[in-house]
Specification:
heterodimer; A: alpha+beta; eight-stranded antiparallel sheet; six-stranded mixed sheet; 33 strands; globular; B: alpha/beta; TIM Barrel; Arc Repressor Mutant, subunit A; 2 domains; nine-stranded mixed sheet; 15 strands; 42% helix
């Protein structure tokens, strides 16, 4: 540590920047609420709506924090001094681990919340390791001690083992009833070191999140690491090199509060006339245009989408609307990638890249709820590397329909991940079977305590993005948890499986799949489509094929009789309304050749059992 | 041209497959007749300028009314409307509810056409359908109708009855033809929601003959009847030349008609209206001098066009020139690719500027109409 960074201003001495690490449902939001209440940041009445940190509808419904937020509290310690506490929220899902790592960088400490009835989960461990690697002071908390099923001692011991702390460091608490919360607050002040950094040094401010304000543009949430930032300063984003003028600077309370300046150690926001959150990259470093910092803060990376899917409007005339909606969504969420594509079956749409499957679902739901879009999405897939036979050229393929002719392919590589699964030991057998079914490569098993195992596997990402997580939960009665990170690309025996309807290929139903699974998938998909494609005037033949070889076939028999028997007086209105409804239904179907395919058929693929 | 429909919502018992508006007549007859006559009077202005060519008493069971009660209604019609001298005046009746005396009285009142709800000449079918009559009563009713001097007699027959073998359907058709009935309606048993029949089917107690069998039974009727001098002038209706039901044709031709009674529909100058379905409410409203309308719609040109297409295809076909005139559009051109597909598959044929359904097309009329615009 340089001399410069040792300087402590009074302000720094009385500032604590921290976050809460917890698994879904272990009580992070409840604890946050209690802290806000205890510090008088909000009143109990404000909490009626419950859990202030999660302000998107979706987050409240799913009980998970999707986007990060931060909030400042004031607290008078027993030493009589007033402290500024910045609580920085972190997302709790594996899709967003980069964002987690960035918000950890903005803190000096972390409260580790573990549910006394559940024990430590995989996601918690990986985030805890990130926090320890980032040098954060950990305050372990065993939560929900008031529940009868709490295993306070067992859970405390495993925390001690994991964190390497003393048993008396673990604070027993019940965020719900408030027990232990004052102790947590005291520990935040006493155990977490104050921020360092020289307010006079060249500016280095870390962007740990950004949101889009329709009136002000991108709002960057920042932690000033070195130097000071004032309104009117000419600033530069070091990753993009783009320069702006700091229009407004302030701190984050229940709402933004303008302060005019921020200095080393502070957490706050910056508005600089940036139109697009794509320019305020999470992890980027802000510095001054004149007297810039020598280097950006370490750890910045461009987040790459892992899962790709085609999104299509249900009605082709809504293409432009969907484009607008995606563009607006991207203002808020820079990790969405999209570009126009077209499908013979679905018309014009967009190929979109997501951080993971949850991220994809969130985007879909937001498109539907916030922008009123109804969309069809194609089977999600990962990004493959196709190595061509003669040139050995490596093509990156994120859309099955772009797969080159099999004759030209030397081999195909697919992404593998390292997965960490934490589970009660009794479900180990089920989980190993699941991983084997998904082409997993076993690495090892260690025990966190006599009843809980930590299993490591390497798995093809494609096998994980589908319903792996749901399956994992179901084979472990909800107890197992999963964390994973990208490992590498490996050659695999992959084929492109096509679906043909009356001989015409339905591009939107094509997928890239391991040869050993192609037959089963094709058979199931044909059967499913047979259920979903309504009988029509003509016979519908559904085939699954690899290249020109048909591997499964089903037939939807034509209608034989469909005519109203009685059509007098009042029946006429009724009949017409039925017809109008039927016609509207047909308008929403997708036409492949002369066959009408309902949208559910495209969506059904997503819910297929692997 | 204009028609009048009178709904008589009474049945002594509801049949297991029926979802028409009907109640038991206990104590309701007289207030109902007063209400009905009141409605007949209140709406008389609508057809002030028109000659009434057809009247149809349907139900329910109109023949549950005494001749004097029917006469009470008829009087109101005669007094409030201009009836054509060659009017077609139909009454629906059920076997078991009519005898020679009643039938003679009907003729005296002015009825000149009977539609008899035979359904089947076989007791097994009638028991299944929970009809009130048996096969013998069906024959007696037809005989009594001829004796009373009715020439224009139609009967309803039903197919796709669970448990009815093909031979019995065939026998029903043969019997109807041998009785020299000039009009035969053949209805496929329709499963209406919230009827006991549907519950039986859903519970697995009863097996509805398959769609293939249904198609086969219709085809059989079509071939049999058209081979014996009957013409199919609507999907379910067969008649000897000159005995088509003019009243029903007026529905299909978008002619104006007034419907009186609960749930009855009226159509007049592009607008359709309908009465409340609740018999008590119907009586209450009219007792207070209020029209019992429940709703109405003005048919847009698109709605009229949709109706025109399916009503024409169910009957004599789409007259391309008339279509052009009526909707200012070329039906063939605007449906070119669909028509080509349908023709190629043998569902429709075009001759003498008419688009008609083939026999195979008739079986799939609803589906075909959903593809045409």
């Amino acid at each position: 540590m340089s001399m410069m960074s040792m300087i402590h201003s009074d302000r720094q001495k009385r500032t604590r920047n921290f976050c809460i690490i917890a698994h879904i449902d272990h009580g992070k939001s409840t604890l946050a609420d209690r802290l806000l209440e205890l510090t008088g940041t909000i009143t109990k009445r404000d909490l009626v709506v419950n859990q202030v940190l999660d302000d998107m509808d979706l987050e409240q419904e799913r009980g998970i924090t999707i986007k990060l937020h931060a909030i400042q509290m004031k607290y008078t310690h027993e030493d009589g001094l007033e402290y500024t506490l910045n609580l920085i929220d972190t997302p709790g899902h594996v899709d967003f681990s980069y964002e987690v790592s960035r918000s950890l960088q903005a803190c000096e400490g972390a409260i580790l919340v573990v549910d006394a009835t559940q024990g430590i989960e995989a996601q918690t461990i990986s985030n805890l390791y990130l926090a320890i690697d980032a040098g954060l002071e950990i305050i372990p908390v065993v939560n929900k001690i008031d529940l009868s099923s709490a295993m306070i001692e067992t859970v405390s011991r495993s925390i001690v083992d994991l964190v390497g702390c003393k048993e008396q460091d673990v604070i027993p608490a019940s965020a719900k009833s408030g027990v232990g919360v004052p102790e947590i607050l005291e520990a935040v002040i006493e155990r977490i070191p104050p921020p360092q950094g020289n307010p006079e040094a060249p500016l280095q401010a870390l962007i740990f999140d950004s949101v889009f304000d329709p009136y002000r543009g991108a709002v960057a949430y920042i932690r000033v690491v070195q130097g000071s930032l004032r309104e009117g300063d000419r600033i530069r984003f070091m990753a993009t090199g783009k320069e702006f003028e700091a229009e407004e600077v302030g701190i984050l309370q229940m709402k933004r509060k303008r302060t005019g300046s921020l200095a080393a150690g502070d957490v706050g926001y910056l508005i600089a006339g940036v139109k697009d959150v794509a320019d305020t990259h999470v992890g980027d470093t802000i510095t001054h245009a004149t007297r810039p910092a020598e280097k950006p803060l370490p750890g910045y990376k461009v987040v790459k989408p892992m899962v790709f899917s085609g999104l299509y409007p249900t009605l082709s005339e809504q293409f432009e609307e969907l484009r607008d909606a995606l563009a607006k969504l991207r203002l808020n969420d820079a990790s969405i990638v999209f570009e126009p594509e077209s499908s013979a079956a679905l018309g014009f749409g967009f190929r979109c890249g997501f951080l993971g499957l949850l991220h994809m679902e969130i985007v879909q739901e937001r498109l539907e709820r916030e922008f009123g879009q109804t969309i069809i999405n194609t089977v999600p897939n990962v990004e493959y590397i196709v190595v061509l036979r003669n040139s050995m050229e490596r093509l990156v393929i994120d859309n099955p329909t772009l797969m080159p002719d099999p004759g030209k392919i030397d081999h195909i590589e697919e992404p593998f991940i390292s997965a960490q699964i934490i589970t009660p030991a009794e479900y180990l057998g089920n989980i190993m079977k699941l991983c084997m079914d998904r082409r997993g490569i076993y690495i090892n098993t260690t025990y966190l305590d006599p009843t809980r195992a930590d299993v490591r596997y390497e798995l093809p990402l494609a096998e994980v993005i589908f319903d792996f997580y749901d399956k994992l939960k179901s084979v472990s009665r909800g107890y197992a948890s999963l964390d994973y990170e990208f490992k590498d690309y490996r050659p695999s025996d992959l084929v492109k499986l096509d679906i043909l309807i009356n001989g015409e290929m339905v591009d939107a139903l094509s997928c890239i799949i391991h040869r050993s699974k192609a037959y089963d998938w094709g058979r199931k998909l044909c059967a499913k489509l047979k259920q979903l494609i309504p009988r029509q005037l003509f016979e519908v033949v559904i085939q699954a094929a690899i290249g020109s070889k048909v591997i499964a076939r089903d037939v939807v028999k034509p209608l034989r009789k469909n005519v109203t028997a009685k059509c007098y007086g009042g029946d006429i209105t009724r009949k017409r309304k039925l017809l109008e409804k039927q016609k509207e239904g047909k308008r929403r179907m997708k036409q492949v050749g002369s066959v009408e395919i309902p949208q559910e058929a495209f969506l059904a693929v997503l819910s297929m059992e692997q | 041209m204009a028609g009048i429909y009178i709904h008589i919502p009474f049945c002594t018992r509801k049949c297991a497959y029926c979802d028409f508006v009907s109640v038991r007549p206990d104590g309701l007859k007289s207030p109902y007749l007063d209400a009905l006559v009141r409605e007949i009077r209140l709406r008389s202005e609508m057809f002030a300028g028109s000659l009434i060519h057809t009247i149809y008493f349907g139900g329910g069971t109109p023949s549950l009314l005494e001749p004097s009660e029917l006469e009470y209604i008829a009087d109101a019609l005669v007094r409030n409307y201009r009836l054509s001298s060659d009017i077609e005046w139909t009454i629906e009746c059920n076997p078991g509810t009519i005898d020679a005396g009643a039938l003679r009285a009907y003729r005296d009142i002015g009825f000149n056409r009977l539609s008899i709800g035979v359904q089947s000449f076989f007791d097994e079918d009638l028991v299944f359908l929970t009809r009130m009559h048996d096969g013998r009563e069906a024959l007696e009713a037809i005989e009594a109708a001829s004796t009373a001097g009715f020439k224009n007699i139609g009967i309803d027959l039903m197919f796709r009855i669970p448990g009815q073998p093909l031979e019995r359907w065939q026998a029903n058709l043969e019997r109807a033809v041998s009785l020299r009935l000039p009009h035969i309606s053949c209805y496929s048993l329709t499963t209406e929601s919230r009827t006991p029949l549907v519950q039986w089917i859903e519970s697995g107690e009863v097996m509805l003959p398959s769609e293939e069998e249904d198609a086969h039974l219709y085809t059989l009727a079509y071939r049999f009847l058209t081979g014996r001098g009957y013409q199919r002038y609507e999907i379910s209706n067969f008649a000897q030349p000159g005995f088509e039901c003019r009243h029903n044709i007026s529905y299909w031709d978008h002619e104006p008609y007034g419907g009186f009674g609960p749930s009855a529909h009226s159509y007049f100058e592009g607008s359709r209206s309908w009465n409340t379905t609740d018999v008590s409410e119907y009586i209450r409203l009219l007792a207070a001098g209020t029209l019992p309308s429940q709703g109405s719609e003005t048919l847009s040109s698109a709605a009229l066009r949709t109706e025109h297409i399916f009503l024409s295809l169910r009957t004599r076909g789409i007259d391309l020139d008339a279509f052009q005139k009526k909707f200012d559009g070329d039906f063939l051109e605007e449906n070119a690719s669909t028509i080509e597909r349908l023709m190629h598959a043998g569902f429709i044929e075009i001759s003498e500027r008419f688009v008609r359904l083939t026999l195979r097309g008739m079986l799939l009329c609803d589906e075909i109409c959903s593809e045409l615009r």
